[in-house]
Amino acid sequence: MAKAFKYGIKGITGYLEPAERDLLRSLFDDVVSMLEPEERANQDPLAALVGLDADAREPEDRALRRLLPSVSKTDAAAALEFRRYTERSLRESKIGALKAASLGLDKDELVLTPADARHWSTALNDVRLVLAERLDIRDDEDAGHVHLMQDWSQAEDVESYLALVYNFTTWLQESLVQAMLQSLDTRR
Fold it and tell me: What is the rounded average pLDDT of the residues 24-53?
């Protein structure tokens, strides 16, 4: 069974069993797959090098829109222009954090540097955003309903399983953020 992240002499540490590590690795990989930009034929190499995407558009998938939100809800033209200049680097940054967190899943005991902790926090947050969208969590009442699902033996359909995974990643992220805050307090 997983142990919450904590801050101590070795830094930020946590413990995950092999099945939990496999689950997280799979979740991280799934979100990476969602974020990977489409390869386009005849793409301008200079534009690709600097991260400009002339064909950028708001994603159709609601979960991907949560990961790559629009900068403006009132000015579609400005939002699209901003997206053209920033989306590729945002995708790459998120993919980098997810892959970095995934690399740390080779041992039961996790020992995170401050940079590792930031990657993990970003990766867990992105996974939770996707799960929240798939579970249609819109407000505190929806979240409260999802948090009622705590027993893995009750997972009888995809929604209940996703709710359990959401609760697990929420707990893991919360313990990580608390450990990160504690590490900041001790450095002051």
Answer: 78
Predicted local confidence at residue 125, as pLDDT: 98
Q: Which residues contact 153 (CB under 8 A, 6 or more apart)?
A: none
> Would you state the structure tokens that stand for residue 32, as one six-digit string?
């990476």
Note the pLDDT tens digit of each residue in 70-94.
999 899 999 999 988 888 889 999 9
pTM, full prediction: 0.88
Strand partners, 58: none
> Number of C-alpha atoms within 13 angstroms, CB side, residue 161?
4
- Residues 6 or more apart whose CB falls under 8 angstroms from that of 23 comprise 165, 168
Nearest Cα residue to 170 out of 141, 184, 150: 150
Beta strands in the chain (DSSP E): 3-8, 11-15, 109-112
**Cβ-based neighbour number of residue 49 at 10 Å:** 8
- Residue 178 sits at the vertex; the CA angle it makes with 97 and 2, to the nearest 5 degrees, is 75
Other beta carbons within 10 angstroms of residue 153's beta carbon come to 5
Longest dimension (CA), the chain: 53
Other C-beta atoms closer than 10 Å to the C-beta of 11 total: 15
Do 68 and 91 contact (CB within 8 A), yes or no? yes
Using the predicted structure, report yes or no on whether residue 171 has a pLDDT greater than 60.
yes
